[in-house]
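hiii, so i know i said id send this last week but things got crazy w the move. better late than never?? heres the sequnce for the chain we talked about at the cafe, plus the structure i predicted for it. fair warning i was half asleep when i ran it
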Amino acid sequence: MNNNDNSPDIPFTPVIIVGGGQAGLSVSWYLQKKGIGHRVFEKHSKFQSWRENRWDSFCLVTPNWQCKLPEYPYSGDDPDGFMLKDEITDYLDGFAESFDPPLHENVEVKHIGKSGDGYLVETSIGSWFCDEVVIATGGYDAPIVPPYADKLDKNIFQIHSRDYRRPSQIPEGATLVVGTGQSGVQIMEDLVRDGRKVHLAVGPAPRSPRKYRGRDATDWLYDIGHYAVTIAEHPDPLKALTQTNHYMSGRDGGKEIDLRRFVVESDVSLYGSLSKMDGTTLNFLPDLGKNLDDADKSYVGIRDTIDAYIKSEGINAPEEAPFEKLWHPEEEITEIDAEALGITSIIWSIGFRPNYEWIDVDVFDEKGRPQYDRGVCGQKGFYFIGLGWLNTWGSGRFLSIDEDSQYLADRIEESLAQKPMAAAE
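okay and structure toks below
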């Protein structure tokens, strides 16, 4: 307890975790098991992003069996299904109740800086000294909306996917959804099912099969060992870190999403990447055909990987028909008039940026990205958890949170062992 000797009025705790979501509380679970004193500060309420920042029909994209929080795996009767939003929050609440973490909700961490060989953490309810800090705030702080959105006609309603809840929230008329990651394509489908006319700006996101040769594709990939590959072992780590998640859906028991099929069966209009807008004029890049082809290439590549595994292992699995493209753009439409097409709203679904401005510790590169090895930073006693590819594909998902949090808790225990008086508050 060497950080607050000169400031007796500031309390000390060995470890502070910033973020009360599943990642932060998983680290808390292991620290509590080890008897290591700590506090968890959550800016909102626990699991707020699941409760408040998802649309009504939201469900998991990965099967329920992948939910493996510390000694709290999914225990329902549908391991191959996909939990709905309320079921997800019930699962998470159950995990938190299973061990009563030292959680302080509605407490904002305003600044973290070095203090001696530890850290000073300033919050909305006061300051704390600590030896170790775990950042578990995720990477979804600031919704991305391009600067040219300000030039759009003010009569056209704009909303980010974070704030979308249901079709009735959107004005009557056609909607342009921008972005084809998991959120974009699922919101598109949500509107289509409500009978809305949808225009979709298709980005470079890849897509995945859902069910293939008798099983969910994620089951095959798990058996193959795909999810066990670490970022250090990945053949193209930059691609892994920057690529948008493959799109598919867990709705209606799980389905794949083929955008070409939506054109044929649901009268969805597709364009390339949105590039600019001015008034009611919207411009797109001529990359629709390429983006669709690239998404299909990813889709077929996953099928081929599964086929090769089935063959090598001599597995008896049903055959599947070869993939065929149902539709292709005859021309690239690069400009439309939103008013003429009856577009009254735009839903931005092009992602988020993290916000680390409150962290005044040398753990970032020149572009502001945190630097670590499996969550352990070069600055002693500083860690990140819950980010995509922290170690494996599952690091930013339920699948590998347990493994990652146990690893960090072990490193924290080792670090605190060098400060024997700091292990308990």
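btw The radius of gyration is 23 Å. thought thatd interest u
miss u guys!!
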